[in-house]
Design a protein that fits this description.
Length: 187
């Protein structure tokens, strides 16, 4: 049975609205899952972060002589440098930021871990940031990176001498990227 044109248009419009609502609901479910994924005290995530760093950079991310549990706590609570990680999504979202990074960017854990990482840079800096991340993807890691970032408050600062590396699990699967931010200067 063929529907008259006006009814077919209304049906098509409603089907598009349903599809948009379903997509929106998928985004909400994804965001809720990200919120529920608290990696601050996740030992397997700590191993991914620290083991990828050691494998690619050749150095330890935490002080020598401490257990993995102590290292996980130290990295989140006490490290003097910022550590950020984002996932492997097409528009990556931060999944981890230690307290130093939270303070630097002015976000609480819950806010930071819902933020697309591209928003940590101002719009004019995003193309440069994307080219840099592509270099990290090609080479596995890059050291000595400098770039302008923006805090939640709008304060601009330069990260200096950053190291960014691929997060590769023990099976060789790509899980995202992480960054160590040892030095920053307000601009």
């Amino acid at each position: 049975m063929r529907l008259p044109g006006c009814f077919a248009q209304k049906l098509d419009s409603r089907l598009r609205s349903v599809a948009i609502l379903e997509s929106y609901n998928e985004v909400l479910v994804y965001q809720q899952a990200l919120q529920n994924m608290d990696l601050r005290n996740d030992l397997s995530f700590f191993h991914l972060l620290a083991d990828s760093y050691r494998r690619l950079i050749g150095r330890s991310l935490t002080p020598k002589g401490i257990t993995a549990e102590e290292g996980m706590r130290w990295l989140y609570e006490d490290a003097s440098f910022g550590i950020l990680a984002h996932n492997a999504a097409p528009d990556p979202v931060f999944t981890y930021g230690n307290k130093s990074a939270q303070q630097l960017f002015g976000y609480q854990w819950e806010e930071l871990t819902m933020l697309p990482s591209r928003l940590s840079a101002e719009a004019p800096e995003r193309a440069e940031r994307q080219q840099f991340l592509e270099r990290v993807a090609r080479d596995g890691f890059v050291t000595g990176y400098d770039g302008i970032r923006i805090a939640k408050s709008g304060r601009r600062f330069r990260i200096k001498n950053a190291t960014v590396w691929q997060l590769i699990d023990d099976k060789g699967a790509y899980r995202g990227q992480a960054a160590m931010l040892p030095d920053t200067v307000d601009v």
